[in-house]
Amino acid sequence: MSDSRRLPSEANPWLLNGTPGNSDFLLFGFPYAGTGAVASYREWPERIGEGQLCPLQPPGRESRTLEEPVGDFGQFVSELADALSPHTDRPYAFVGHCGAMPYMADTALALVRAGRPAPVRIFASSWGAPHKGLYGRLNFADLDTLDIDAEIDTAALARYGSTLPPDLREVVAEILMIDLRLIRGYEYSGDPALPCPVDVISWSADDVVPPETVWPSSWSECTEATHHALAGDHWEFLRGRPALTDLIAERIATAVVRE
Questions:
Q1: Cα distances (angstroms) measured from residue 57 to each of 11, 93, 104, 132, 168
Q2: What separation in angstroms does the CA of 69 have from each of 7, 8, 58, 178?
Q3: Which pLDDT value is given to residue 9?
Q4: DSSP state of 136
Q5: Which terminus of the chain faces fewer neighbouring Cβ atoms within 10 Å, N or C?
Q6: Measured between alpha carbons, how far is 81 from 61 in angstroms, rounded to an integer?
Q7: What is the DSSP letter of 163?
Q8: C-beta of residue 16 within 8 angstroms of C-beta of residue 56
Q9: Chain segment 77-88, per-residue pLDDT in tens
Q10: Alpha helices in the chain (DSSP H)
């Protein structure tokens, strides 16, 4: 990855790679909990079929470390929707893993309320129907007693085969705790329905949000949804391999043709 991919746009710091080029479609990548755009998408290709991957960088992490993190779920969605609004003049989609789904759902609804076109699709990895609440053990843990360092060590060992250096673990712990508190402000009843279809992705060896939790999970009550069962563990999404990226490119291309 070139250094230019790590620089935020001066005009729009939410877009890690700056103003999108002239691609057929844009794929906005929502970060994984406890991380930013670089950590979430550094292993992904810059191009997804005929489209451009646009990793999203929230304030308070990585290239925006000096900014104050957003501490309210509604404010987070409002600021992100405002940032994305100018880039919804061509087909676009959202993609995210695990706890990114609540943000994708509410951002899509916020854009439509503002009179902007809806995403052509949302790609939701390792998450069940959004109107049924939250998923994953950490989203129900007592945050006052949670051993956040132990949780990060366990996740790092599963993903990298080693723990993080203490200084990096401290940074990740701070962001992860912010994200765990932030997502608990999410509320969605299923009405109105999501404004676009959702491609729901489960992973065969996911022990964080198991496949049987992801699907069917009442998705049909809030949107048109299609399930894709892929091989891999909970961290496979972050590796950006062709089994996932080719699927996304194909599904978006089909949606764009239908429009």
A1: 13, 16, 14, 27, 18
A2: 18, 16, 8, 8
A3: 39
A4: S
A5: C
A6: 19
A7: P
A8: yes
A9: 999 999 999 999
A10: 37-41, 73-84, 100-113, 148-160, 166-183, 211-214, 242-258
Residue 15 is classified by DSSP as B
Q: Report yes or no: 120 and 27 within 8 Å, Cβ to Cβ.
A: no
In angstroms, rounded to a whole number, what is the distance separating the alpha carbons of residues 156 and 113? Answer: 39
216: preceding bond cis by omega (within 30 degrees): yes
Cβ–Cβ under 8 Å, residues 28 and 51: no
CB-based contacts of 3: which residues, under 8 Å, 6+ apart? none
Rounded Cα–Cα distance for residues 95 and 175 (Å): 20
Q: How far is CA 23 from CA 48, 52, 185, in A?
A: 10, 6, 35
pTM, two decimals, is 0.94
**Cα separation, 152 vs 242, whole angstroms:** 27
Q: Tell me: the pLDDT tens digits for 187-238?
A: 999 999 999 999 999 999 999 999 999 999 999 999 999 999 999 999 999 9
Pick from 61, 53, 15: nearest CA to 240: 53
